[in-house]
Specification:
With 80 residues, the protein is an all-alpha fold. The chain has a domain at 1-39. The chain has helices spanning 3-21, 25-39, 41-52, 59-76. The mean pLDDT is 94.
Length: 80
């Protein structure tokens, strides 16, 4: 097994879960993307494209739901 492939697998199995457990979601996601791109570059591009097109990740969509949830919390007197 090539060293780069081993490091990519190690990243997916050790470092990405560690980042997640420490609450470092952006770091976890970046590590997974980099490792996946190295392990399966032919599969990475279409998967990444599909994820990037997910409307739930759109800033306007997120802002709408954040404001809705905040309004409900405010209405109920809950700090959030």
């Amino acid at each position: 097994m090539k060293r780069g492939f081993r490091k990519a697998r190690e990243t997916l199995e050790v470092y990405a879960p560690l980042a997640e457990s420490l609450g470092m979601y952006e770091v976890k996601t970046l590590l997974e993307d980099l490792a996946f791109a190295h392990i399966a570059p032919d599969q990475f591009v279409p998967v990444k494209r599909k994820v990037d097109q997910d409307p739930r990740l759109d800033d306007k969509f997120l802002a709408y739901w954040i404001s809705r949830i905040q309004a409900i919390l405010d209405e109920k007197g809950i700090k959030g």
